[in-house]
Design a protein that fits this description.
about 240 residues, alpha+beta, two-stranded antiparallel ribbon, 3 helices, 9 strands
């Protein structure tokens, strides 16, 4: 008895629609989790970059040095701009990595054509800020806020803030994320702060009871970094954030 069989090739429309529906459901379930993992990885990368900056500063300032206010130039230890601040550490502490100053998750980095590899260039004994680093700061913003003048008592001080995620305001919180100097990187989630002893903390805000990260000389808490022990008090000019250029 002869039997005939029909070979099936491909899938039916119903099978294809079923597979597509399953993929859609899996994507809806997994995508938020993947985004969360990626964001956590970027936060961890940012933490490591800020820790490197803090350790670089400590290595440089360990010889009883500090950064004062003024226009930066080769061989100078003064600055009112982020490029000059970075150049001091690049030259004095060998912290010559341009990538440390920019964050992948930062909306302000979206307009940067190429993240610079270095901060400075050297011609003999003359140090200059690398053109690519200057260009990057023109096209975007650094992820960090820093201030001058710094204090010699900053090094080793567990309570004295050195630098933090861009945008923290005087009331102790971070604003919405964005590309300007007053916008933040992570939005109202918070930001990282590195202290004079090199440790880095994540902080949702510096005002909420129990999370005050800035302490005055008398031990009381403050939401404003300018009030912190270890930040120069009563100096002229007063401590101010370096400009983002």
């Amino acid at each position: 008895m002869n039997t005939s069989t029909r070979n099936r090739k491909g899938f039916t429309l119903i099978e294809l629609l079923t597979v597509i529906a399953i993929i859609g459901i899996l994507a809806a379930v997994l995508f938020p989790g993947v985004q969360g993992v990626m964001r956590s990885a970027k936060k961890n990368s940012a933490l490591n970059k800020l820790r490197s900056i803090g350790q670089g500063y400590m290595n440089w300032a360990g010889g009883n040095k500090a950064i004062s206010n003024g226009a930066w130039a080769s061989g100078k230890t003064q600055s009112t701009s982020l490029s000059g601040y970075a150049a001091i550490l690049a030259d004095g502490a060998s912290l010559d990595s341009g990538e440390l100053w920019f964050l992948d998750a930062d909306p302000a980095s979206d307009g940067i054509a190429a993240i610079p590899k270095t901060v400075i260039t050297k011609t003999g004994s003359t140090v200059s800020v690398a053109a690519a680093f200057t260009t990057a700061l023109t096209q975007g913003k650094s992820g960090w806020d820093l201030y001058t003048p710094t204090s010699r008592s900053l090094v080793g001080n567990v309570n004295a803030p050195l630098a933090w995620t861009r945008g923290l305001n005087a009331t102790g919180n971070w604003p919405a994320a964005g590309a300007t100097a007053t916008d933040s990187v992570w939005g109202t989630e918070g930001g990282h702060i590195v202290y004079g002893d090199g440790h880095v903390s994540w902080c949702s805000d510096t005002l909420t009871t129990g999370t005050n990260f800035f302490s005055k000389a008398d031990g009381t808490a403050s939401a404003n970094w300018k009030d912190s022990a270890g930040v120069p008090q009563g100096t002229v000019p007063a401590p101010t954030l370096v400009t983002q250029n």
